[in-house]
Amino acid sequence: MKKAALILFSVAVLSACSPYGMQGNPAAVQAGAAIGGVLGAIIGDRAGGYNGSQFGALMGTVAGAAVGNAVTTPRADNYEEDGYYIESRPGSYPQGRYTPVSSGLRVTNLRFIDDNRNHVIDAEENSKLVFDVVNEGDAPAYNVTPVIEEMNGVKHLLISPAQQIAYMPVGNKIRYTATIRGGKKLKTGEAVFRVYTTESNGAVSETHEFSLPTQKRVKKK
Q: What's the order of all strands across the beta sheet hosting 126-135?
């Protein structure tokens, strides 16, 4: 009976994982498994002696691994399809900051979604830059950092800090979202952005460059 319960429990927990397997930080998965195993053993021992301890340890290990994976696996945000698809151009690499190493990662489907849908970064407006990062290489990628840089020196333009993706297996695709906010003193002009990814092994993906107009605050009469 306990073996049957364990099998059903394991299937239920692991079915919540990605079809690519455990995508979370490997260290977090292992730590979760270890902690879950110890706690399960203690609870099982109190409930049913030695056999209960063994059973509890197994269940705790499975649950702990799943929790560790869940809290460190990047989530894909779903946004409405009325965003403005950006026409980007091949960009240059930052001078003196990277020695580009071939990367299997690719940035695709860049979209700009602003509050009023005028495809302009307005002063005091929040907008989002959404794009997909795809691992088309032949090896997993670790500590992937999507980089978004404004190259035209536009002041009073805020870009949310980069969020690192711990692990991307081959074939994996992550939808990444960054927030862009025009400050109160933003001036009318043009912002030029460069987007790419870096990895822990020094690999840098191909860069994309594109422009978006900016608009100063219009005073209400």
A: 84-85, 105-114, 126-135, 173-182, 157-159
Contacts of 25 (CB under 8 A, 6+ apart): 68, 72, 166, 167
Alpha helices in 15-91 (DSSP H): 26-72
What is the full DSSP assignment across 198-220? E-TTSBBPPPEEEEEEEEPPPPP
pLDDT tens per residue, range 7-19: 444 444 444 444 4
Residue 208, judged by CB atoms within 10 A of its CB (0-12, 13-18, 19+), counts as buried
The per-type count for the chain, helices as H runs and strands as E runs, is 2, 11
Question: pLDDT digit string (tens) for 82-98?
Answer: 567 888 888 777 665 55
Query: At residue 39, does pLDDT exceed 90?
Result: no
- What are 192's strand-pairing partners? 211
